[in-house]
Specification:
Blueprint (H helix, E strand, L loop, with lengths): L1 H27 L8 H4 L11 E2 L1 H5 L5 E6 L4 E5 L2 H10 L4 E3 L2 E4 L7 H13 L12 E2 L3
Antiparallel strand pairs: 1-2, 2-3, 3-5, 4-5, 4-6
Length: about 140
């Protein structure tokens, strides 16, 4: 008789815990990891000029690279993890990591102010308060 009550109670508790864990993950997930580079391509920032999807060419053979866009003077690569992004940024001199996204500059056309503009913008993208606690880093020059 005790088992008839205990099993439904235990099942109910397990369901409540599962929903709580799922809600906690959804509420604490960093939305920057879901940024689609195609949705930000048409901003009024010089570094985005000429931006177009180029995932196959940019991500070929690069661990964790899941999306790539080329612009006239910058390349944007999105990674599955910040660890993959950090590894790639460290291997590419002058590349800039902003969380899951790495910006690579294939030439020297963009000024330092223009680079800082896109880097600041990427660091603050998809943040509700505009505060990038752990802002991006530039790989050694």
């Amino acid at each position: 008789m005790k088992w008839k009550i205990a099993i439904p109670v235990a099942a109910s508790v397990a369901v409540v815990i599962a929903f709580g864990v799922a809600a906690g993950i959804a509420l604490t997930r960093d939305h920057r990891q879901d940024i689609d580079l195609g949705e930000i391509a048409n901003r009024n920032i010089v570094a985005f000029d000429g931006m177009h999807r180029n995932t196959h060419a940019l991500c070929d053979g690069i661990a964790g690279c899941i999306q790539g866009y080329s612009a006239d003077h910058a390349e944007f690569l999105r990674f599955a993890s910040t660890t993959d992004a950090a590894r790639f940024a460290k291997e590419n001199r002058g590349a800039y990591q902003s969380h899951w996204i790495v910006i690579r500059y294939p030439d020297d056309v963009l000024t330092s102010d223009q680079r800082e503009e896109i880097q600041w913008w990427m660091d603050h993208l998809a943040t509700s308060d505009g505060d990038a606690e752990d802002a991006g880093t530039v790989a050694a020059q």
